[in-house]
Amino acid sequence: MKKxxxxxLFVLSVIGIGTALYFAFxxxxxxPEDVLPESTDTSSGSxxxxxxxxxxLSPSAEEGEILPTADLVARGGTTQxxxxxxxxxxxxxxxxxxxxxxxxxxxxxxxYAIDASGNAVRLSDQMFPSVESVSWxxxxxxxxxxxPDGANIVYDFDxxxxxxxxxxxxxxxxxxxxxxxxxKSIALDPSNRWLITSNADGSNAKxxxxxxxxxxxxxxxxxxxxxxxxxxxxxxxxxxxxxxKMIIPLGKNQENFKGLIVEGYGFQPVWSPxxxxxxxxxxxxxxxxxxxxxxxxxxxxxxxDNRRSLxxxxxxxxxxxxxxxxVYCAVPASLPNNAGLGxxxxxxxxxxxxxxxxxxxxxxxxxxPEEARxxxxxxxxxDESVLYFTNFDSGNLEMIRLx
Length: 403
Prior knowledge:
It holds the Pfam family PD40. Residues 34-63 are annotated as: Disordered. Strands 1-26-25-24-23 form a five-stranded mixed beta sheet, with no helix packed on it. It is built from one helix and 29 strands. By secondary structure, the chain is mainly β. The chain is 6% helix and 37% strand.
């Protein structure tokens, strides 16, 4: 019996060892099935959330791909900015060619014109040290220069001639035809302070409106249709809100125009090229005291009609018209509530460039400057191919290509 048990155990051992050798050496290893993750593609053909038009979504650098660079021409995304000067400039304006931009160089006291290629030429060999303010005519070939000592001159860059204006005149603007100017005549006696017009050489001065102690409340702004010459922030408060007020338009011939109802403080006007509409900004409770752009009809028969908010938070002097129906604006990347009451605190805030269609009211992002920068004194070339601006932080003249 014991002998049979030993033999049985031996047989089972041989079978077990043989089976193990078979699996180890003769049967091929099986391959696991590939399990593919379920597709998570929910693409509908639109841009992913958070992406903007003109922005390419690129693979990572680890895959050996070249990361995208800023666009040379503005397409709605990050865009190259070209520095045209290496030092601060002042008082820029589109020149008589419609392509170049004029500026004053405070270092050498001369005026220059520069094109999109960075080629600068003197507008005159005449030096004007320490110019404090410059008011250009529409053609960019004449300007009123104001100096710290109170001296004022009109300079014709084509004829290279100058005319001296009274020292008690200030805050100038040219008429659309450049043959007249408007100014504030500030005498020592408030009862003898007037808004006046004169010929461009200072002759034939005529008082338009008594200023009294309200000269600082009057904004000189001669309309392209040659009828309104200024706005006075002297109207009575209006029902509907504590910050609702009336702005009084002042006519060249003392016309009694209808007032403009404005929602907020800090009214800043900019005329459309044809004078039919007025773009302005104001900071009120309806915009959480941020600056807000508004548009209103502005012909004598329609003044104040079709008033509407454009929903863009920026100041009107950061905008420039490209045509009667479109305007480019530098819009701060972010502004807190109440920013309109303390603008100086936010002047270094980086800007994005927008174009606003004044027919539809649609604001489209045109460019994000490749390096964050605050923009001021915008101007666009006549063919709308280049937008010039001054970098608020550096003071340098810069440009963005639009075409």
